[in-house]
Amino acid sequence: MPDEEPILTIRGEKVGLGPIRRDLLHLHVKWANDPEVTVPLGGWAGPSTIEDQEAWYARDSKRDEKRIVYLIYELVTMRPIGCTDLRDVNYRDRTAWFDVFIGEKDCWGKGYATETARLMLRYGFEALGLHCILLQVNADNERAIRAYTRAGFTVTGRHREVIRRPGGRVDSVLMDCLAREFRDERSGGA
Fold first, then answer.
1. Which of 15, 54, 162, 173 has the most crowded Cβ, counting Cβ within 10 A?
2. Is 183 exposed, middle or buried (0-12, 13-18, 19+ CB in 10 A)?
3. What pTM did the predictor assign?
């Protein structure tokens, strides 16, 4: 039901994170078909259908300890604005890969991705007991790199010219955050 009150599992100051919802797949279709949203994330700007999003939902809505997916809500309006996840969670090595996207463009530049990243780092380190959370971002996505750095991630390397773009190639930047660094940052370096 589109008008039902969202369930928030994790709450920050600006955003809340809750389970993905089938009734909101029309938003995922909108976001997936917007090249301004998908291309900076490394996605393709081709068509995505409701059937594509239903297949994604069927896979990611099931309980899976190796992939934890949340819908991001703007707390002021309680509207869904994007998605985030920890994927390839490895409980033996205590690592995971982080992803986030803000699909509502009027929510860009408001600190929502940074806060989402911090909430997911805290969740990964404190609730899941992870040691290292990693991410990969296109080098030309400077806005995302700034957000990730503010959240606590550090650039650790790059894969050179692995992303093809019209008119050229782009590096893929590797970033990570260790649990002890995140705790130190939250306690003021103590």
1. 15
2. middle
3. 0.88
